[in-house]
Design a protein that fits this description.
This protein is α/β, with parallel strands linked by helices and 222 residues long. The chain is built from eight helices and eight strands, in the order E-H-E-H-E-H-E-H-E-E-H-E-H-E-H-H. The chain binds ribulose-5-phosphate and fe (ii) ion. It catalyses: D-ribulose 5-phosphate = D-xylulose 5-phosphate.
């Protein structure tokens, strides 16, 4: 299965929440492909962010791009239908946060969304063994979840290579996403390690010129 076309997904965690619609639209107009929507519950991770009502507001505001929901919540299942109804395109969750990973993946797909499984820096990829046929995306965390603006953990590159090998062996069109500390300086090495979907929060929203930053990322991806 050849690598899929690169996707740049700005994490709106780094946007200005008081101007979320405008900031999100500006990142998309500057060349971003998806919107990465970080949901934190102050339970699974030590931070609190936004939920389905905010996602619905973005849709109402006119955001039509795919919205890639990264759930950092525990439990997972009861909130899945709310995000689907609000307009999520893809929903990813952490295996540690679900009692029944296979069931949660099924729930996400039954709700009409694509499904992803997220691996923290120290979580082994073993959970993939029995669920590759239920996955649309594997998300490798390159920082510990909970906060934006952290530094990329270099050991993640090896994990991306391992995940890429598993995707190739499966013969399935599963995206490989990376999240945390991605910049125009390290994105080339990250792409070479096998990622095809790149989340970047601070690097894009803290840049003076979103379009220049996204163009520099695309150039480095090659
Ligand atoms: O899931 C996340 C944190 O848990 C964010 O998506 C991630 O940190 C992106 O922000 P940055 O690019 O600033 O690191
Ligand atoms: Fe995220």
């Amino acid at each position: 299965m050849p690598k899929q076309s690169p996707i740049i997904a700005p994490s709106i965690l780094a946007a200005d929440f008081a101007r979320l619609g405008e900031d999100t639209a500006a990142a998309l107009a500057a060349g971003a492909d998806w919107v990465h929507f970080d949901v934190m519950d102050n339970h699974y991770v030590p931070n609190l962010t936004i939920g389905p009502m905010v996602l619905a507001s973005l849709r109402k505001y006119g955001i039509t791009a795919p919205i890639d929901v990264h759930l950092m919540v525990k439990p997972v299942d009861r909130i899945v239908p709310d995000f689907a109804k609000a307009g999520a395109s893809l929903i990813s969750f952490h295996p540690e946060a679900s009692e029944h990973i296979d069931r949660t993946l099924g729930l996400i797909r039954e709700s009409g969304c694509q499904a992803g499984l997220v691996f923290n820096p120290a979580t082994p990829l073993d959970h993939l063994d029995y669920v590759m046929d239920k996955l649309d995306m594997i998300l490798i965390m390159s920082v510990n979840p909970g906060f934006g603006g952290q530094k990329f953990i270099p050991g993640t590159l090896d994990k991306l290579r391992q995940a890429r090998e598993r995707i190739e062996a499966s013969g399935r069109a599963i995206r490989l996403e990376v999240d945390g500390g991605v910049t125009a300086d390290n994105i080339g090495a990250i792409a070479a390690a096998g990622a095809d979907t790149f989340v970047a929060g601070s690097a894009i929203f803290h840049a003076k010129d979103y379009a220049a930053e996204i163009a520099a990322m695309r150039k480095a991806i090659g």
